Amino acid sequence: MYYDNFVLPFTIGLITLLVYLCVRYYKWIRSFPKIDRIKIRRGLFSRKTLVSIKEIFMESLLHHKIFKTNPVLGYMHMTFAFGWFLLIIFGKIESMVYHTSAFNPPYFAIFFRYFHPAKETFPGSETFAFIMDLILSFLLLGILLAVIKRFYSKMFGMKRTTKQRPYDLLVLTVLWLIFPARFIAESFSSGINGGGSFLTHSAGEFFATFLPLRNLSYGAWWTYSSLLGLFFLLLPFSRYMHIPTEIVYIFLKNWGVEQRKQYNGFSEIQTNACSRCGICINTCQLNNSCDIKDTQPVYFLRRLRNHEDFSVQSENCLLCGRCEAACPVGINLNAIRLSTRPDLTRVTKETYAYIKPKAQAETPAKVAYFAGCMSHLTPGIIRSMQEIFDKAKVNYTFIDEEEGVCCGRPQAICGNWKAAKVLMDRNQERIESSGAEILVTSCPICYKTFKEDYTLKIKIMHHTEYIDMLLQEGKLPLHKNDLKTVFHNPCELGRGCGVVDAPNHVLEQVSQRIPTRYDGKNSLCCGGSLANTVIDSQQKTKISTDTVKAYSAYQPDVIVTACPLCKKTLGKTSTSVPVKDIAEIVAAS
Amino acid sequence: MNFWGFNISETRSINYDTNDKDMLIHVLQEVPSCKLCIECGGCTAGCTAGRLTSFNIRKLQMFMKRGENKEIREELHKCMLCGKCILVCPRGVDTRKMILSMMKYIKNNQK
After folding, report:
1. What is residue A342's DSSP assignment?
2. Of the residues A410, A440, A469, which one is the last residue of a structural domain?
3. CB A410 to CB B80 under 8 A?
């Protein structure tokens, strides 16, 4: 039988890890709400599982999303994940071919070079040795890149890399040492017995010239096994917990499990699935404009995971969603952050009792227009929308012309869901009493909550979508002019609701739209977000100034946005270029 | 003793020395920009809730500075937190955060 005492650290580490993971995941999944557990049961034997496996291959192994962010960074992550994976797979195949049985102990494949007498050949033994050496060299190159990244992160397109705690640095070092240890152990064995291929064989011959390999070889295998065992034991309490957890998360996500308003087991799984790659640090405008370095998801999730105080970090976020769009793991960063904000309101019968229901409309109009609170501070938007309705001869009713009610989202983004629900119910009653078929709103904040939290049965459109529809139907007379425009897509509209094409269509038809690198879901936050209650007005102004600078660099005649709050915030800091709403541009054309 | 058969109205004097300034201290610590307020009332003029009810941010913060916390407790929950007032404020007072921090104080000091 192939056995030696040095396999013990590895075997014990692996078994402990597997038992720990099973218990952990079982506990987390059991804490899910019932509806999510039913979804898991339904999804288990469906096509969704196959989709998940494909996604795991693309993301957990190839890291295809990181490649999109930066090729060198992607390559580094890929060598680690995919390289290690190939090493395990090919090692296993090699051991199976040699052993002519699928059932050999797991350590046998890992320490194959130790157990296999090199002179004994088997079908394809040389090819296998070559492949294994190739993969190992691939991995060693990855480690070299990782070491370089620690010191020169700029090379990888990152202004900053994640600051790790000492414990994580220890585990990181263990991980980095595993492959050099394997390389040394294999080369030493090769130096004594022969075997190996271009890498380990030549290295072995080289070492044999000046080292007493017979005394060192056994120790090298012990080191390799101990490092593996140590890594497995430390893994669950380090950031490398993301390796198994990301796989579990991808399955759960595809089976339809959702991040709900409460922080539950699924949030825990996502928190643990964060690899702390630090891509979110670079996209965060609080980092780039205000030099705030402790609130980015990577640090926030770490605080959550380690049960450190996160009350400030929880509130110190614009919820712009730039990190969420860039996250290679696809964690619901905004929803998790929101779930940690405490509810401060107490709801009684009196709460918002002053909002009276509206009388049912006798002759319902086709379209109901809801401007939103903020639009009442930008009368230009309201006037333009009214002009557009008139030009297109649309029969509409203006819901909040006189007595507006807030949509409830501002309460919700402070965590005050109970009060938000009361507001939403009262507002929904008022909207429904209009009897309209389409609800058009000018405010992306309202738009998002109408779509996600209300149970309205009518069609809900943001005014960009509505104008786009009118243009497509040919109901709106149009004159293209020479105005050069750039489009600033509001966070809640582009990233929040996925409305990207409609505003671009509209702008291309009425003006000369200049494409920018901030188009669509890459747009910058204006800084005026109500979600952040920590930063002060100067810091907000700083973010907004930087945003204006970024868009003005394309030298447009006008910066166009589609949100009253963005218009107001950007308009305050943009001194040379006017900021207008898309409705105003259309109405003026 | 009131032996004339008339009600004598409660005193309207405000004693800055004896009034409860606890909330004020808490809010000023969390929202230092409150000190910048010039009581112009712009926040109240644009207020969404103020259009439908007697809710008045300017008054609220005046109550807070006087230490009349009972009145605040009665009024505060009318706010919808829509944030219009921040955009209106000419002094850069984070009015919305002021309300939130009052809510927090009341929640933590409930009797």
Report:
1. P
2. A469
3. yes
Claim to verify: residue A295 and residue A394 sit in the same structural domain: no
CB A479 within 8 A of CB A589: yes
Contact list, B86 vs chain A (CB under 8 Å) = 530
Nearest chain A residue to B95 by CA distance is A533
CATH number at residue A460: 3.40.50.1860
Q: In terms of DSSP bridges, do strands A459-462 and A484-487 run parallel, antiparallel, or are they unpaired?
A: unpaired
Do A411 and A534 lie in one domain? The reply is no
Total number of domains constituting chain A: 4
Does the residue B63 lie in any domain?
Answer: yes
**Cα R_g (chain A), whole angstroms:** 29
- A325 and A399, same domain (yes or no): no
What's the confidence (pLDDT) of residue A96? 87
Nearest to B78 among A354, A404, A410 (CB): A354
> How distant, in Å, are the alpha carbons of A272, A476, A478, B79 from that of B26?
36, 55, 56, 20
For the domain that residue B28 is a member of, what is the CATH number? 1.10.1060.10
Mean pLDDT estimate for chain B: 88
CATH, residue A580: 3.40.50
CB contact under 8 Å between B84 and A373, yes or no, is: yes
Range of the domain at A504: 479-588
In total, how many domains does chain B have? 1
Structural domain that includes position B29: 22-108
Helix (H) or strand (E) holding A441: strand A438-441
Could you report the per-residue pLDDT of A273-318, keeping only the tens digit for each?
A: 998 888 999 999 999 999 999 999 999 999 999 999 999 999 999 9
DSSP A60: I
On whether both A298 and A432 belong to a single domain, the answer is no
Residue B13 lies in a domain: no
Question: Which of B109 and A23 is assigned the larger pLDDT?
Answer: A23
pTM of the model: 0.91
pLDDT score of A54: 95
Q: Give me the DSSP letters along chain B.
A: ---SS-PPPPP----TTTS--HHHHHHHHH-GGGGG-----HHHHH-TGGGTSS--HHHHHHHHHHT-HHHHHHHGGG-----HHHHH-TT---HHHHHHHHHHHHHHT--
- Determine which of A533, A572, A579 to mutate to test the interface with B (most B C-beta atoms within 10 Å): A533
Task: Confirm or reject contact between A530 and chain B (CB < 8 A).
Answer: yes
Residues of chain A contacting B77 with CB distance shorter than 8 Å: 345-346, 348, 350-351, 419
Contact B87 A377 (CB under 8 A): yes
- Domain membership of residue B74 (yes or no) is yes
- Torsion angle defined by CA atoms of residues A468, A472, A475 and A478, in that order, rounded to the nearest 10 degrees: 70
- On chain B, the residues whose CB falls within 8 A of the CB of A350 are 77
Q: Which residue of A403, A405, A537 is in closest CB contact with B94?
A: A537
Beta-carbon separation of B80 and A537 below 8 A: no
